[in-house]
Design a protein that fits this description.
With 430 residues, this protein is an alpha/beta fold. It is built from 11 helices and 29 strands. The longest helix has 12 residues. GO terms for molecular function: ATP binding; glucose-1-phosphate adenylyltransferase activity.
Amino acid sequence: MHGSDSSTAYSLDDQLDVNGGLRRTLALVLAGGRGSRLYDLTSKESKPAIPFGGKYRIVDFPLSNCMNSGIRRIAVLTQYRAHTLIHHIQRGWGFLKAEIGEFVELWPAQQQTSSETWYQGTADAVHQNLELIRGHDPKYVLILAGDHIYKQNYAKMLADHIRSGAMCSVACVEVPRMEATGFGCIDVDEHDNIVRFLEKPKDPPGIPGAPDWTLASMGIYIFNADYLYSILEKDAADENSNHDFGGDIIPSQVGKVKLMAHRFKKSCVYSVGRREPYWRDVGTLGAYWAANMDLVNVTPALDLYDLSWPIWTYQVQRPSAKFVFDTDARRGMAVDSIVSAGCIISGGKIRRTLLFNDVRVNSYASLYESVVLPGTDIGRHVKLNRCIVDAGCNIPEGLVVGEDRELDQKRFFVSDDGITLITAEHIARL
């Protein structure tokens, strides 16, 4: 494009390639994980099905990113306790038109290989579905984790992948170097070619020009389809492999083919007024609590009110939230909080708290910095501080949690960072 800045604009041919590439991209959302670090929150459903943000489920974020990026051929691979997830996908994501080649399909684990095993790793999950993938004849395969919270324009990542000529591109987030020891870390040259892939290294590599920072893999990959087929077949035959993209596939290919690191900051969909890329792995109770708590801030790091990049979900039909009673001792009120549809604040007070659908807070109860999942009833005179309350709990009258950690640890689960998880099973044992 004559007169254009080539660093920010694509040529007409580039744009045509990207548009055609989007139509020939198949997205695979790996949504079979248990998420054991969330403890009892995932005892009945998989991590991607966990509610988030008042009305969503975690899996809605990668699915919405696909929709908004122009990718309309999507398969969701399920395995662990998938019933809730399957219902959610069927009810909320069945609006695409199969007649024009658009779909969100559910691919449950079916032991489709001769070994007749369940998925043994992320690469094995894709390998077991190669026949289905080939049936859709994609040119590119976009592989996504189904359990992270972020907004990303995959079309920009695909454009970089096409222009680079790489066989595989790996999305990376920049993190402080000594905080990256729990990630798959990527060492790159000055052109972002991958020269090493290190799984949870004690001494992560720096970034050229920024030695105090490291590129950490987000578990997001774009593969040329034919290349993906060949390396998955080789990996499946390797008895010493754990059949994982980060642990086996990518490291084994470094130096053999062109692999690119795609920096998330280039394709992140930023909240208004912010230039720090937002990506959260909500895989621990503390991280899950903190990500939900951020949403009640005056200006959250994640903007769910941005109509230009909406997060789609299945919404149950519920009446609007209701606040009743207004005396000094008994006032239904919420400050710096999110209150979802179907909630009734009946003479209770909530501050810096997020309520999912159909929560009732009864008279004289007070909640502070708590996340309350759907269908919970908070009894009179209850006090909750820095809690996560699982769905469907009936919190008995007068219960106080968050003031005596030693007592809380005897009755509930308390994380190292002081977040108390309350479940129906905990309540039944009181």
